[in-house]
UniProtKB/TrEMBL annotation:
Pfam families with a match to the protein in the record: Ribonuc_red_2_N, Ribonuc_red_lgC, TSCPD
Ribonucleotide reductase class II vitamin B12-dependent N-terminal domain span: 54-146
Organism from which the protein derives: Lujinxingia litoralis
Residue ranges constituting the Ribonucleotide reductase large subunit C-terminal domain according to the UniProt record: 167-710
Protein name as annotated: Vitamin B12-dependent ribonucleotide reductase
CDD domains assigned: RNR_II_dimer (cd02888)
Biological-process GO terms, alphabetical: DNA biosynthetic process
Amino acid sequence: MTTSIEPNVSETPATKKKSAKKVREFKPSGKGLSFKRVFTTEGVHPYDEVEWEQRTASIGSETGKLVFEQRDVEVPTSWSQMATNVVVSKYFRGQLGSKERETSIRQLIDRVANTITDWGIKDGYFASPEDAEVFRHELTYLVLHQKMAFNSPVWFNVGVEERPQASACFINSVSDTMESILELAKTEGMLFKWGSGTGSNLSTIRSSREQLRGGGTASGPVSFMKGYDAFAGVIKSGGKTRRAAKMVMLDIDHPDIEEFVHSKADEEKKAWALIEAGYDGGFNVVGGAYDSIFFQNANHSVRVSDAFMKAVEEGGTWQTRAVVDGRVVDEYEARKLMADIAEAAWICGDPGMQYDTTINDWHTCSNTDRIYGSNPCSEYMFLNDSACNLASLNLMTYRDSDGEFDVASFQAAVALTITAQEILVDNAGYPTPAIEKNSHAFRPLGLGYANLGALLMARGLPYDSTEGRAYAGAITALMCGEAYAQSAKVAATTGPFVEYPLNEEPMLGVIAKHRAAVENISDEWAEMADTALLKAARQSWDRALEAGKDHGYRNSQVTVLAPTGTIGFMMDCDTTGIEPDIALIKYKKLVGGGYFKIVNQTVPEALIQLGYEARERQAIIDYLMEHDTIEGAPALKEEHLPVFDCAFTPANGTRSIAPMGHVRMMAAAQPFLSGAISKTVNMPHEATAEDIADCYLEAWKLGLKAIAIYRDGCKRTQPLSTSLDKKAEKVEVSQPAPLAAAQPVWGSTESRRRLPDERPSITHKFSIAGHEGYITVGMYENGQPGELFIVMSKEGSVVSGLMDSFATSISLGLQYGVPLQVMVDKFSHTRFEPSGITTNPKIRFAKSVTDYIFRWLADKFLQEEERDLYLTKNTTEAWRPGEPQVNVAAAPADEEPEEEVSAAAESSDVEESEGFASARDGQVLFDATAGNTGTSVYTLQADAPPCSECGSIMVRSGACYKCQNCGSTSGCS
């Protein structure tokens, strides 16, 4: 594999053309684009066709603190409360309480849609003023009806900044000089500041095995990665509620590849040691274990060639070569090197793999230079020093009244969105001259989609099936073919991108490869051959290829599949990007503690599609609500179970999508994407390093450009033990035995049962939102608690005095025979500060010190069937028995919460639809009382970091994370 050498940024396209073959000239018509109304009605503004209402947008933290609130916000009634909270808190501009603050979704959409349209008018994109107004209304309609959303930087900056940063994805170069290495740190910092992510291949930096020009040994790229990582960790993207997103890559033939492969895993082991020594195991904790190690703010990927992968297959050797002079430095067994990569990924999820040969085989601009790197989530892959603005289409909104995919409206939406993204290119700002120059010269775009998993389930197609993959491939083919056709149409009026003449041959070759791949879809599933969807996909690629031959293309790239984190919430998507749903039943944490149930909204549609009658559907959904799994539901046929398989296995079930099911779905979509796919292949906790190596090998064989895996539970975000815990473990505590018969009469002096002078005890250290303390319990001979001591503050303080008095009263109660069960039931779930996340995996969230103490006592001294009511099950906190159900849909503070909503409809006429619609708006659908064994999705991703904004545990979104509570992301979309 050729070592990645950065192209000389001082070399202009003009100088390259001198040595290139003669290129033909293109004469644009200059007539502009015409648009027809597909979604809107002439003479009627899109805003006038929807119902609006006033709402309060609010977000709470894990500790019950109000993180954000804005009242009297005007929102379409069709938008969920979650979409309202996310959009208002993330995208509304202006200081809260000021006249400049946006107060309506109308203002937000107008700010972006009108600005883009006005820029299009200025730059001559439209054939007439009438066409511009049609475009304005149609674009407004798409966003208003949640059919499309631009990437977050557009909503952050367009209409606010004169030259707004509109791209989410950047690839930066670095060369083997100290000036360039430090300049990269500055460039990355500015990108994070404005809400974007960046990736860099550091293979151009000489290795630690090579000499410096002035003598001495070079530091090597891994050492500089520590500095880059530190900057990324302290910069919050744009001050706009997004953490820095970053990717680091190294070529497989770089001499420091072994150090790179192990770098993150070795740091992970340090975190484990710190946790065992008593350091906090949470993320984003100042002075905690993960705050004290390197490489936690970037994704790592190894860049491999076909030659290396074949050496792995055949058991050959592999050589690394010096960056400066190309000499052989080391020789490895290829399989051993792959085993090291897989072992590191088994430990911490990194490094992922990028398949360099495949990437460059599909490169539209190979005459300019090779592709060396990607953005943070690996979906945007293009030339160094380039940028890509993203947008995503909500697939579930492109269905007709019969549930069939509406090809015509989808094509119209693709054309509108690509045009809007194209208009952004020349009017946006860029962080460096090199990125600005390449953006104007190549104009890469990244259109994608979300809600594929929901769409497949609604159609009754299993995600992991030939039919599901064929359907997904056809949709992806239609999107990309239509996007390139529109790009060629724009090129006919304005001319192709500047570097197209130089790259005409490779680009037309890649377009032809895309077109040929369409025929493979029907080979996989013959029934797809005659569908309107596949016919339209073929026609779109025919038009794209023919128009490109005549006019060229305005954009070097047009499609990727991004994680769609925050904008997925904006569009009320059930699933993001190419992902299936995480689980049919999910739990969302309530402010201050507790959870409510969210049900996959597409289950009812799937059951209808599969032909179940109303009564059967209701019985299946009732079973799902009760058991958290659809397996075993009455009337559900065995052959239909795969339709409802999700990413994770439910606690009461056995089914989930196998890792290779995810890989095969990616392979179905990849031939129809300019870039790649942001997706993490989740692997079960029991997966081995060999399983990961097999996954990496199969992904290469199937033609993927990149892949990342994550083994559930590989990070130790919970403390393993503390010194005090170890002492406590030596005390054998039996389950409480019944008190001796014939207790004395209450109130008599004989009723007190004193402890012996020498008694066993157990001491427990706890931490609640950073407030530490100790609990010591003295026990009778049979292991029952008889006295309680609590230490939380300095002697003589108010807190110390209150705790002493409280502990004394509890001790007396225990010695006078008050059942511990009664005390636990009375005092648990008492709410006051401090409250928050604890270091106890069985009590993940405490509403107060009193709540924690008594739930801990329940864990240690109550019978199993009793204590389970008060503990976190699978890291999911249980509700207190009898605690009322809560409606967490945001409402003005002076209004009462709405009444609880039953999971089962009262009649078969309304069926399940009301309950599912209520779940979408955040209403509680269950009371988690005794016997509930549901597993939260967070159980399966319990080692994900907490959100930097609200503290909620995040979940994976593509190769990054998103917050289900406030919509923040750690990704680039």
